[in-house]
Design goal:
The protein contains 10 helices and 12 strands. The chain is α/β, with parallel strands linked by helices and 295 residues long.
Length: 295
Amino acid sequence: MNDINVSLIQYLRPFYYVAETRSIRRAAAILCLTPSAVSQQIQKLEEELGMPLFERKAGRSLRLLPAGRFLHSRIPALGNTLFTICCELKNFQEKREVLRLGALALLQSPVLKAIARHGAALPGLDFSLHFEGAPALCHALLSGELDCAMVFHEHILPTLEEIPLFSSPLVLVAHPSLVRHLGPQPSLEQLFSLPMIYITGTSGLAELDAYAGIPLTGPVRVHVASPVAALEAVRLGLGAAIVCVHALPDDMVDLQRFDLGPMLPRRRVVLALAPQHPLAEKQREFLELLKKEWA
């Protein structure tokens, strides 16, 4: 197979603009070059390829020949490929690996804290973080858009591998004024009879499976919301929220927390991996740090 002179790549840009404008002079103005320089580059490209690309007639604009039309139609895709290659080469040159990590929205706070805490320990690793609902995360794993994702154990698909991370108890958080009439130690039945309960979730009913056993009583209205939105509603006195304990803010002096105890199972969070997906050693090291953090 004959080698192709890679220098012809530099001639594709002037060729593209000449093909677009049908004029060497107009292309030169766009490229901030002289018309003679553009003309020379077009000639060199034709010499490299061994065929003419334009039909040249005095007094008429340039017209693409069949070979020129073919090359012109392929340049946009070629440009995207070259751009991707350049970006990948830049990352390769900087020797920085990227771990594409997905997580449920209610795990956002601990994920960010753990990554910030261990970032100095793994300076050669960048993190691409994505927060979605469980079905979207699992689909992204299977399609190769993510390397790993943190989801609840019940969401794991049979085709995915899993690494245990931590068990996360559920708690009910309420504004003091909302539970004051219930006494100093309200029962779970009293708590579940509050007029409005916010349950944290990010993908509709798929997030409510673990809450199916809650014995809600009375005129209770259930709303599905993100942890941030649910806690904000609780702070406004609009209702109570059942949240994962890891979604609670560090400083929560203005709210009251009630452990749901054995009434609800602890939600096991696992790290899901696409099958046969090779993780670099630095990525494996990060996963070990993450498991240790939430053991």
